[in-house]
Amino acid sequence: MTQLSNSLAAADLATSLHPYTDARALEETGPIIIARGEGIHVWDTAGNKYIEGLAGLWSVAVGFGETRLADAAHKQMSQLPYYHIFAAKAHEPSIRLAEKLVEITPEPLTRVFYTNSGSEANDTVVKLVWYMNNALGRPEKKKFLARNKGYHGITIASGSLTGLPNNHRDFDLPAIPVVHLTCPHFYRFGQEGETEAEFTARLLAELEAVIEREGAETIAAFIGEPLMGAGGVMVPPEGYWPGVEAICRKHDILLVSDEVINGFGRTGGRFGCETYGFTPDIMTVSKQITSSYMPLAAVLFTEEIYDAIADNSHKIGTFGHGYTASGHPVATAVALENLAILEERDLMGAANRLGPRLQEGLRQYADHPLVGEVRGAGLIAGIELVADKATRAPFAPIGRVGAQAAIFGHAEGLIFRAIGDTLALCPPLIVTEADIDQIVEKMGRALDRTAEWLAAQG
Ligand code: PMP
């Protein structure tokens, strides 16, 4: 095992550039090479067993080793491993999945466009909206509104919508017209003495002011994750989303719900927009759509948007957008089986059944000396570590303590993600009460070891 680990690690270090990794630091530590998974657990090549507390990348809803998904892929590969849906072709899995997605998402969403990744889905949103507004004779209505710390992907357009400095710095982004608004996270961005309701009112006033300043006739859409995930698991303040929706409607601005993490039951409702009380014009989904067993994403949108696009493309006889693997038959077949499992086992209701146990379990650490805020909803949570609980001052540099906590988590047999100094949990939807208790316990030990490590540093 160790020999295999060592030779694989050496090969990896010699040949790869890893996403979201400090390459020079990796050269010192080497990678953790994951070899297999079963249920909520994964094992590395050295034989260590971990609870996958982030479900891979917020995505392996049904857990690892689900043979029904392997069987669905095998069956589809044997029958029709690939076909496209360009040029008036179609195949059954992509049709059936589109039907299913339209059935389970909010009513106004009637149309589906497939992509391979969440980034491509949000890129497609930008292109659909621009195309639509050109078709409607309002070519100046092109800007997007997004939020600081929002995450929408890393391609040129979706990376522009993302509101995180590391995704912009030295990549020459944003490269499309986008205005980033205040991050709707009360703990960090609420002002001294402000109530949550006042915070919401201030964010909505900011939105109105930005629309006034830019001109509603120049703004195409507002995009947001209902509960913000990769920016640090941030729960919106009370009343925020209905307020945003009302303002968007008033100014004829499309509302886009990025459900790449929220979708399929993560926050309690089937979709985050249901949990937080708004109805989008466009929705993007990925990750839990296939439990990440296959790469797949989709954009859902209204009949009105469809009509504008269809009429315009009819003039030239084609719609010039699409990916070789749009609606890939194996990916869509796996998604169908995955959604069948989610429905049969009511896994989209798991966050309602088990979420309180996770949220309450973690809230016992609110008093821990390193913990500033414990937050989350359903089966997604974040624990923000701070240098000073009273002033909420972050550690400097941000991320060093979080990264160390993640290492202690690994040592305790729990994988979670450190986003700066926020420790993110997003376990597979198949978790049991006993699993949650273990996750909470291991997180507590990781926090204690981090505190000891910090104290030892003086
Ligand atoms: N949107 C959200 C909300 C996401 O969390 C992510 C990925 N974490 C993306 C978009 C981008 O998806 P991908 O990594 O598949 O491009």
Automatic annotation (TrEMBL):
NCBIfam families: PRK06105.1, PRK07480.1
InterPro entries: Aminotrans_3 (IPR005814), Aminotrans_3_PPA_site (IPR049704), PyrdxlP-dep_Trfase (IPR015424), PyrdxlP-dep_Trfase_major (IPR015421), PyrdxlP-dep_Trfase_small (IPR015422)
Keywords associated with the record: Aminotransferase, Pyridoxal phosphate, Transferase
Name assigned to this protein: Aminotransferase
SUPFAM superfamilies for the chain: PLP-dependent transferases
Required cofactor names: pyridoxal 5'-phosphate
GO BP term (any one): biotin biosynthetic process
Molecular function via GO: adenosylmethionine-8-amino-7-oxononanoate transaminase activity; pyridoxal phosphate binding
Pfam family, one: Aminotran_3
Organism the protein comes from: Frigidibacter mobilis
Family of this protein: Belongs to the class-III pyridoxal-phosphate-dependent aminotransferase family.
